[in-house]
Design the sequence.
């Protein structure tokens, strides 16, 4: 019984996957070798969380906010979080703050779909590893 090999696409490159919930890149693990094609979530927490209606609202809010601005403009995830919190009728500080991480996850899912890019200091960054303040812009 040999060592399990990492799945490769037809070009010999590693088959990349993105978590359906958080939008981060799923790193291949030998434990998943037998069911790699069925892996959809990067962790038990993401599997339990899945994508909820508020997550879809955040995605739509990001799309709408970017659509209302110039083609080169960026937005902060907090703008989408504030818009969704206000639409839900809760304008308190805590309401939008609790939506910040879901807004970042929504942005990562939109990056995986090829709709937007995440930037830091004006440069596109890898959404799976970006830490700190981010901006969202339309994909170029």
Sequence:
């Amino acid at each position: 019984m040999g060592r399990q090999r990492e799945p490769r696409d037809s070009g010999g490159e590693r088959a990349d996957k993105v978590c359906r919930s958080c939008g981060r890149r799923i790193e291949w693990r030998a434990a998943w070798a037998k069911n790699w094609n069925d892996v959809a979530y990067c962790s038990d927490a993401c599997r339990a969380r899945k994508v909820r209606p508020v997550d879809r609202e955040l995605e739509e809010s990001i799309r709408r906010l970017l659509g209302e601005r110039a083609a080169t403009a960026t937005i902060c995830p907090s703008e989408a979080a504030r818009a969704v919190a206000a639409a839900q009728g809760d304008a308190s500080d805590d309401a939008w703050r609790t939506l910040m991480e879901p807004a970042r996850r929504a942005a990562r899912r939109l990056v995986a779909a090829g709709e937007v890019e995440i930037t830091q200091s004006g440069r596109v960054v890898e959404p799976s590893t970006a830490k700190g303040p981010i901006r969202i812009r339309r994909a170029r």
